[in-house]
Specification:
Layout (H helix, E strand, L loop, with lengths): L5 E3 L11 E5 L7 E5 L10 H19 L4 E6 L6 E7 L5 H18 L6 E5 L2 E6 L14 E5 L7 H21 L5 E7 L9 E8 L5 H12 L1 H5 L6 E4 L3 E6 L10 E3 L30
Parallel strand pairs: 2-8, 9-13
Antiparallel strand pairs: 1-2, 3-6, 4-5, 5-7, 6-7, 8-11, 9-10, 10-12, 11-12
Helix pairs in contact: 1-2, 3-4
Amino acid sequence: MAPHHRCRIPSYLATAAALLLAFLLPPLAASQWQNCGKNGNFNQNSTYQANIQALSVTLPKNASSSRTLFAADSVGTVPDIVYALALCRGDANASACGACVSNGFKDAQQLCPYSKVAAVYYDLCYLGFSNQNILSATDGDNNALMLVNGQNVTVPAKVFEAAVGVLMNATADYAAADSSRRFGTGEEGFETIDKAKPKIYGVAQCRPDMSPADCRSCLADIITYIPQYLTGRRGARVVGLRCNYRYEQYSFFTGPSMLQLPAPSVGAPPSPAPANVTPPPVGGVRPEVIS
């Protein structure tokens, strides 16, 4: 496996705090990425650690039993209060969701030892905890990480970037309009440009307790990273506590795409994203994720 290189993007170049860049070779199904806070440490066997432990028992169960695969809670009182939230990808099943969040508590304390603030992201879920209130759906830091495929596309970067922009904006519109889960998947034809890799796939998701406007605004902010940092990369994701997205030149989610966009015409930029995309009614069986 190739080494992973991380570097901080200067704060004046990023709209989300604690934005990091990592170069990855796909696919890494079991990978996790951490974002350790700088808001102090707790002591071993302290009340703060006991509160984290209490949340590690309840939050995985609450997330896996939730229709939206989302849970948020707090335990304790100031100065030892711990706030935590977890969200699983919208195509996960309940058991996989609970196991992922449970692993998040274990990994967070190993990857960010004794840190009062930590977030751990996986393909299937994320977990974050803090001594500051991160539970509000209307504001707060997205605490984002940017993860970039280490391989470059073999077609003109600007053409690929334009196609990705269309796909991710359309998928973001879909996710924001999804009143059930704030989750959307999409695929876009690309065979007119690259016959070897004829499609681009994308996922967009927000916390399900966010309003459509707040969700779309959050996604819009991180989609602006595509032309800034992600030009020419075969895949990338921006993962955060409030919203996230991912795109690749291979399918990485379960089930049929909720959106299917046509390929751009040869020699022409991709068509604008479709307007007023409405998700289907809530119902049916959530597909099972195959790791």
